[in-house]
Amino acid sequence: MSSAAAASDWVHLTGEERVLWAGMPSLYPAIPTFAVAFVLSIFGVWLFRDGSLPLLPSWFALVLVPFGALAAVWAYLSRWSTRYVFTTKAIYEKRGVLSRTVTQIRFDRIQNTAFEQSLVERTLSYGDIEVYTAGTGGVNLSLRDVPDPKRVNALVTTRLGETARARRSQRSTDEPSTA
């Protein structure tokens, strides 16, 4: 995915801010939904052709087909419409199929991060990243199903270190000299 193109319509970069990473949730967790949707649609067509619904009209079985298709489309669209962008100054998350919610957390507000992966997630190389900010007791941003979360979390950790060094450097130049 092109980082600049992916974020151009909803992330407004400031002066020297640049995109470090952009991505979207992995499609692997949606595979069971796709499988169920496919089976539901095929089952509906099979019931219609077989005509073995004794108390219902045969066309009623075809109702399963659009339900299966809608489940698959919704699973795909909800992942496709979720985007994550890490810049030199902040982490952004955009969610929403019909509406849009954009969350931004500046690196100077981030206290800690963590990433989680189950055995299946490790095997398929995706996982969750939790972002904790200063002054709150819980998770402020939870990025779900991020591809290669170890690498992405390392990128955030590196950026946090750079932000902390820049803050310390700024504080030392702001302190009045006693000499």
From TrEMBL:
Among the Pfam families in the record, one is bPH_2
- InterPro entries given for it? YdbS-like_PH (IPR005182)
**What's the domain of life for this entry?**
Archaea
Please provide the record's keywords in A-Z order. Answer: Membrane, Transmembrane, Transmembrane helix
Q: Which residues cross the membrane?
A: 27-47, 59-77
PANTHER family for this protein: BLL0215 PROTEIN
Q: What is this protein called?
A: Membrane-flanked domain-containing protein
Origin species, per record, is Halococcus thailandensis JCM 13552
